[in-house]
Amino acid sequence: MRAVDVMTPTVISVSPETGVQEIARLLLDHHISAVPVIDDDQHLLGMVSEGDLMGRAENQAEKPTPWWLALVSSGPETAASYIKTHGHTARDIMSHPVVDVEEDVCVADIARLLEKRHIKRVPVTRDGKLVGIVSRSNLLQGLAITPPASEGTGDDRSLREALSKEIEDKLNTVRVNVIVKDGVVELWGLVASDEEMKAVQLAAENQPGVKRVENNMSRMPLGFGAL
User: To which H or E segment does residue 49 belong?
Assistant: First the structure.
């Protein structure tokens, strides 16, 4: 399988001018740990992770730097750190350049990349434009149903794209990830209610070409997303 077979195609993203508080709210509300930063043409500019936000909070809580330490640590690194801890927008605090993969990269290569770079997710791009994101959980979902030597077929990919679009357009949810192998659909992710879970399953069952649906979705914890 390749990135296009396991990626989450509908990605929560922000613009360079999105405020820090809004980013924090997005991470909480959507149960995600990072958001890509894109421009108006969907070009990938950077990433803001929960680590960036937590580091910002920790640095702002620290005591002022002693004058003698400031003398030996001044320069570009100090300026960059100041921007990270005092900036107000995604442009100020995002990590860049970003490690990304093309949509035809195989999942084994993606797994090695995540391990080598010590990262939890990687954006998927086509001609430099964001088309999805692959996380460690996406890889596990795909590898759990796919023998190492096999690849998804064109029919599986078409079915996955159609079903993902149906869920996004008709049910307005982006927390569900769809994996398809030989016509068998696996549904993963978080839903807000039993009704939403049933609706997503029905959307999968009614999709032409689906042989079977395996529902691995979970209900959101009570009070999820509240500050």
Answer: strand 44-49
